[in-house]
Amino acid sequence: MSTNPMEEAPREYRVIGTRPIRHDGIDKVTGRAVYGADVSLPGLLHGSVVRSPHAHARILSIDTSRAAALPGVKAIVTSADLPEVRDREEALGEGSTNPRHLSHNILAHDKVLYHGHAVAAVAATSPHVAAEAAGLIQVEYEVLPPVLDVRAAMADDAPILHADLRTAGGDPKKAGTPSNVAMITEFEIGDVEAGFAAADEIIERTFDTAMVHQGYIEPHNAVAKVDPDGQATVWCSTQGAFDVRHLCAEVLGLPLSKLRVYPAEIGGGFGGKTTIYLEPLAILLARASGHPVKLVMSRSDVLRATGPTSGSHIRVKMGVTRDGTLTAVDASLAYEAGAYPGSPVRMGAMCMASPFAIENQRMVAYDVCVNRPKTAAYRAPGATNAAFACETIVDELARKIGMDPLELRRKNAAHEGTPMVHGPKHRRIGCAELLEAAQRSDHASAPLGNADGPRKRGRGFATGYWFNAGLQSSATISINPDGTASLVTGSPDIGGTRTSCAMMAAEELGLPVELVRPSVADTDSIGLTDVTGGSRVTLATGLAVHDAAQDVKRQLCERAARTWKCAIEEVRFDDGGVDSLVQDGERLSLAELAKGAGRTGGPIVGRATVNAQRNVGSAFGGMMVDVEVDTETGRVDVTRCTVFQDVGKAIHPAYVEGQMQGGAVQGIGWALNEEYVYDDEGHLENDGFLDYRMPVALDLPMIEPVIIEVANPAHPYGVRGVGEVSIVAPPAAIANAIADATGARVESLPMSPPRVLAALHTRP
Amino acid sequence: MSTNPMEEAPREYRVIGTRPIRHDGIDKVTGRAVYGADVSLPGLLHGSVVRSPHAHARILSIDTSRAAALPGVKAIVTSADLPEVRDREEALGEGSTNPRHLSHNILAHDKVLYHGHAVAAVAATSPHVAAEAAGLIQVEYEVLPPVLDVRAAMADDAPILHADLRTAGGDPKKAGTPSNVAMITEFEIGDVEAGFAAADEIIERTFDTAMVHQGYIEPHNAVAKVDPDGQATVWCSTQGAFDVRHLCAEVLGLPLSKLRVYPAEIGGGFGGKTTIYLEPLAILLARASGHPVKLVMSRSDVLRATGPTSGSHIRVKMGVTRDGTLTAVDASLAYEAGAYPGSPVRMGAMCMASPFAIENQRMVAYDVCVNRPKTAAYRAPGATNAAFACETIVDELARKIGMDPLELRRKNAAHEGTPMVHGPKHRRIGCAELLEAAQRSDHASAPLGNADGPRKRGRGFATGYWFNAGLQSSATISINPDGTASLVTGSPDIGGTRTSCAMMAAEELGLPVELVRPSVADTDSIGLTDVTGGSRVTLATGLAVHDAAQDVKRQLCERAARTWKCAIEEVRFDDGGVDSLVQDGERLSLAELAKGAGRTGGPIVGRATVNAQRNVGSAFGGMMVDVEVDTETGRVDVTRCTVFQDVGKAIHPAYVEGQMQGGAVQGIGWALNEEYVYDDEGHLENDGFLDYRMPVALDLPMIEPVIIEVANPAHPYGVRGVGEVSIVAPPAAIANAIADATGARVESLPMSPPRVLAALHTRP
What we know:
The structure is a homodimer of 764-residue chains.
Chain A: H1 25-29, E1 45-51, E2 57-63, H2 65-69, E3 73-78, H3 99-106, E4 111-112, E5 118-124, H4 127-136, E6 138-143, H5 150-154, E7 168-169, E8 181-189, H6 192-198, E9 201-209, E10 221-226, E11 232-236, H7 241-252, E12 259-263, H8 279-289, E13 293-296, H9 299-305, E14 312-320, E15 326-338, H10 345-352, E16 360-369, H11 383-401, H12 405-411, H13 431-440, H14 442-445, E17 455-466, E18 472-479, E19 485-489, H15 497-509, E20 516-520, H16 537-564, E21 571-574, E22 577-580, E23 587-589, H17 590-595, E24 604-611, E25 619-630, E26 636-646, H18 653-672, E27 703-708, H19 730-742, H20 753-762
């Protein structure tokens, strides 16, 4: 509690901060929730997609005649059925891309650019007939040499993916030549050379990270129906129904009003379900066949042809004074965009050094096309790669000057007003508070102990920064005649946001949270609501819910004033009812006002819309991790793991902890196991969960979450987004722990046994 | 155009008054629209209802053991599974009833009260297994004598349906005795005896009308799922999803927040889908079985066990002076309520003489239980029966004093300020305007000509009055980024109200109506919206749409003011965009404001809720009809038919005309063909459309609609409800035409060939 007499006492909450059972929980654990692939319609056809067996090839011809002749086949589409789409320069947000490229990614135009690239699609009376028909479509290719590595793709003699691609930014002399480098972005603050001159110790290293997939359980899916007047309806698993509507409209050249998108329940997204793959195909096939059409990906399709996040090559140079002041950072980052431009490399550059107050910074970011699937967003896109590089060098610098790495971080912690490399200054952030919490933690003071035989123990720590997003949201709250409330938003619920939003409505209206019924509406039934991503739903949709509740409360006051025949200024909503300020003890509960609403003017419905850009609170996370390294096999086990995060205010602490734990686990998988393995011709060799190795519960200790709450002053409850930043620190934290255990620095992800063994053998 | 300089020129409309194609038209004509029976869910069970073979019997026992043992049977329910429900006195609106009675109508409690009364329900893996199981349920009955006729039911020695029923109103001495008369209501204005004393001619007659069904094409249906936490979802064909929610909650003892109701497309209702039958059974069976359950009625179920409208017995006495002033009316009306109290007899009494300015009126209304299905609302409930009596006597009085019947009506026409028998005075109405339009019509001056052989021609006219309803509605309008709009209401669309509502939104926002996408939401997704009934949707939901559009326009002005950095008072929305009042030529179109909404504060969503009770405009209708009577067979053919109606303002004239034509046709069926035929034991003998004879297109001439627009001053566009009143006049108009042709008065409905022949044989 604050003791500053100028500050208000913190608000006491009744619902916020508690841990109610989620409203959608029973539906989900009993298998009743309707996911995209569960949707069925009368006369439904099933689709299959023909995919490229090559990583890079020119399409010479597509012969669909044999497939079309197969009984049961109702429609076949190729890129010839897609309208030409013009380039659009303005960005769409994370994971987005140029609509012309998006169109070509949905169905390859003149070239296939990665193994699994969609070439054609067919709809038939059963999935089996569709698969057989897909096999009968003859595609003639001229195979071209692929380029799979970001450095190889930047070489002067590299095979070129896009003959018309010219580098934006960077050296103007090179701007006229075809290139795989889509964009070069430079950020600089201070005087980097002077910073290094002032340093006592300087370290410069290069790092590599592998392309990794979000690994959501539910494959992509789409069901579409198209009426004879062209009106299309789509059901799909997506993080943003309005984005699906917008992107499909762009790719298909339709007005928004011709499209209605119903977001089904979603079995994980983590950024990967923010764009479209199957949806336009389902619409085209439904339009061509006159039947509704369903398309569902296999796991192989998901891994080969949806958007993982970038592998990268990063060079970082940092300097520190003997007394522990970080003086300069200079970095270049090259990220795989995949087949079309649009990696998160700029965001990686912006996030890299943002946990630190370093006066002199320079970052150069390269967005590079390679013959891999077009990347999509993945939890704090770009930041994890960058943190792996920067946070291990900080660790090494600390050890070099003999300072505790946590103390070095605390001494250089970013704070309100610290400028970031891309210009803006930090707002109120919880970086220092997080580091102090880590220093004070049980974990920090627990002895490591010794392992047996060839096993060595170590402890590492790293931090991570993520902007979080604001964007637009809408909410409506209807008060039912029995005093319960229905809450409608447009935010597909991935992480429990139905409940977090219902809790905020319940808090404002003085209702038990069980009496607020949250639902997620389709694009025709709620105001525009941007993607569930950027950790924005509880922040921004929550803000819309808060504002909609104020609208309800204002109306409740009006109704009470009308009932008491007094001025609205003479009444006040408080704690689930309206009090008269002039008549002692006169009070109308929400339930009473709801019951009488018909007589006082009709139903009570509150609504609000927001653009929450100014309400964003940035996120800091940290991980402290103990590992055991088997020095004979190179195997690394995580034995203890604590995740720290400044969440602003935890609306539903259990779900916040779930986000922290989930991000940590994904970061651990990225650190130790996961990678896309291509052969030299660019064929993905591990296109299933047996070979694409994600950590499961047996691989991990309990992840201990430590919530730090430094309120975001731009949000009524102090909320910051919590969904992403916990993935940022783990690879660096584990690398630091491996170094602590063995003295060896592993500079490539994943830190798989062969890489660890190699590092042990070359350690200085 | 008004020439009064004090009056504003009438508003010029751009969209209102045009005839666009309905938004749901393609879906409906191509069979894609999803009606209740089209809904399917994984694991769906099918239900069957056991119905009473007796009209009146005590249930001694129900043995479900054999049915339960049948493989595939998953649940069986009887009235023992329904909670006890207390009486509620307050009325729910048209067609509503006491919740205890409603519960007993859904599953018979201790007695069955009509042939087809539901006794038990079963859910099984297929409709066939369910039907077989229903046949295995053994119900032991003690058969009681039935009473089917309203006069017999009022007799002192009548079999009593409800031992606990005491008459409300009427003679207080009789109030203590069990009775089939649920309520006696008396209305009186003026001095009736003095009125008759002043009359030169007095006629008194009695009339009978048969019980008739709405005859909607789509049988009742319900699909329900119940989650393990008790959360229930219902899909059904209904005129009011919120009413289904409310009534199910009452009957099942659930809070509203445990129920979500999705209104499916509806294949006709006409008042008959304003209550519940299958919905609670589907919920109980789904809860008991753990599976979703679907129930669909057969046509026989619909006719035997849903709510038709009352047959009735009516006595009317009216007086007129020689110069054509109606001096008094005295009437008693007894209406069949069916098995439970709640006929529309009070409304019949209130409407009967309301087209006339008669100073002295007395009406006594009897609500009478009989062993027939509980009646429900049917288009202008109660008014048609009453008009048949009153409007034929007016015709006869006119002929008696040698005055043209239309002229007698015009001379005595009700007008603003005329008191009605139940007290209130008419507001601005179009009664006189309608009569003048009828007098001026082509039809009125067209020669009748002569028919061949035994066929005789005649022309008749009658009027009808209906209150119309207001009630509560909600609407939201979301502006999409491309400048199109999504409109959400909670009014199931029976008569084209999606389009009429979209037209009003388009009118206000300056959009083409095709760019407004209307949809009908479920009970969780829109504010409370009362039943689609009482001709209220275009009036009341339309008012909410109008107000929601004002909310949008206000926000558009705010956004423009923010863009121009000026005060909101300095901008004005006009014709699809916002003009600056201070900067000449500065203008932002809706599309431009929509595209930039993110930057000016987020999405634009307007909402409004209304209780439209004060906005109701009452309806007058009239029918002029030519008939040919075959005096040898008694067959009556309608050869020409013109329908006149004061609609206030026709938003979509084609749909208004459709309502006028549809009501006229139903009135003609009621007049000539339709009736429930019971045998002496109370078994319905004509429980299918082959035997329950509704008119089809071949039976009818083109119905010519004449729209009269006398604006309702309490509505922004002058709208009155248009859905009901056109059914009121036809039976009387046809009776008057038969009398004109033959001199014979038929005083019972239907005026079927035997009745017409009988009247011809007894004519004076």
